[in-house]
Structure formats: structure tokens, C-alpha cells
Design a protein that fits this description.
The chain has a 7-stranded mixed beta sheet with strand order 2-3-4-5-6-1-7, sandwiched between helices. The longest helix is centred in the first third of the chain and has 21 residues. It is α+β, with helices and mostly antiparallel strands and about 210 residues long. About 35% of the residues lie in helices and about 20% in strands.
Length: about 210
């Protein structure tokens, strides 16, 4: 009984750790179905694709405002200009206030490190990666404007058919935000629940 109790506690601990790390909602959008339009365009915001010449600007304007979770993504800023992803930036009054990393090939992106079932995406899917908006500009609808620019770019310049995004379940309103833009949740996206359920069942039998 002591061994079984210890084993169950251990499994519960790892279950909680796995759920905490991978509690994502996965969403997808067919780019040909994207029809979101702004009622009023913000002409003071300039959206473009960053090049290596923008790296120092990004570090100067954004790094001081990063939170600890954002530090991981500094590695991508240093690689801006590589072929594996694009970095969209938004400027207001010559200051960068937002960036959004986009991987044109989901198979060659951080998405492969998540539990999303591999059969659910292909090299014709793009992955919308990390995004950051400076605190003073949050709520100004910058992200929708950047996503419009991203979709327009993917339609015109690539063979991408669909875009994927994931949000953590604890990020309030994130899934609803993307659904309002036309994204739809991918049902049964992972086998994680089944895996953890089987692990617990087998432990209880032994």
C-alpha cells in the first residue's frame, strides 16, 4: 500500500507538471477564409517585415520592456533575417512597439516540440509564433492589424494554405480573440489526455 501510494503521488505530480506545461488550445485558419476587416485603419502604425538592420532597434525599444517569460525569445531576435521565419514589426512614431514571429513551415518550427499530433499539420501550414506588444500600446488593436498583414503576405508571397496558433489555457481571452478573427479550435489536438490517463490506470493495477 505504501508503494502504491508513493507511486500514485509521483504520477499525480508528473501529471500536473505535464498539464501545466502543455495546457494549450490549438487553433487553425484557412487563409482563403480570412475576412477580418478593420472598421477604422490606424495610419500612425506602420507594419513591416524586419531585417537584420532592425535588430538593434528591436533590442533598444523592446528588450527593456520584456517580462521574464519573454527572455527565451531573444534567440529569435538575434536570428532575424534567417530563412526559417519572418519577424513582423509595428512602429509608431519611429519606435518599435510590437513584434510577431511567423514560421512559414510549421514542420520547421517550435510547434513540433508540442504534443500536437503530427498528422494534423503539414509543410503547407504556417505557425504564428511569439508576439509581444509594449505595455503602453496594449489594447490599441495592434495585434489584429499585424495578423492582417501576415495573412496578406502569406497569401501573396508563399504557398501556405493554413495558419496555426496555440494559446495557453490560462491566458484569458486569447482563444476567444483568435476565434473572432476566424480561427477555429482543433479538436482532439493531442494524445496527452489519453497518455496520462493510461499511465494512471496502469499504475493503479500494479
Amino acid at each position: 500500500m505504501v508503494v502504491k501510494s508513493f507511486l500514485n503521488k509521483t504520477i499525480k505530480y508528473f501529471q500536473n507538471k505535464l498539464y501545466e506545461k502543455w495546457r494549450y488550445i490549438y487553433l487553425a485558419l484557412d487563409i482563403n477564409d480570412f475576412a477580418f476587416k478593420f472598421l477604422k485603419k490606424d495610419d500612425s502604425l506602420v507594419i513591416s517585415i524586419a531585417g537584420k538592420e532592425n535588430i538593434k532597434e528591436i533590442k533598444k525599444d523592446l528588450y527593456p520592456q520584456f517580462d521574464p517569460d519573454q527572455d527565451f525569445f531573444k534567440q529569435y531576435v538575434d536570428r532575424i533575417g534567417d530563412d526559417s521565419f519572418s519577424c513582423f514589426i509595428a512602429k509608431r512614431d519611429t519606435r518599435i512597439v510590437h513584434y510577431f514571429i511567423v514560421f512559414e513551415n510549421a514542420i520547421d518550427s517550435p510547434l513540433v516540440k508540442t504534443p500536437l499530433r503530427k498528422s494534423l499539420y503539414s509543410d503547407k501550414d504556417a505557425y504564428l509564433g511569439n508576439a509581444f506588444t509594449v505595455p503602453s500600446e496594449r489594447g490599441a488593436w495592434i495585434l489584429p492589424g499585424v495578423i492582417v498583414a501576415v495573412i496578406d503576405y502569406l497569401r501573396k508571397e508563399t504557398e501556405v494554405k493554413r495558419v496555426l496558433v496555440l494559446v495557453h489555457q490560462d491566458t484569458l481571452g486569447a482563444a476567444t480573440f483568435y476565434e473572432k478573427l476566424g480561427f477555429r479550435k482543433i479538436e482532439d489536438a493531442t494524445n496527452l489526455d489519453v497518455l496520462l490517463g493510461n499511465l494512471r490506470f496502469n499504475s493503479l493495477k500494479n
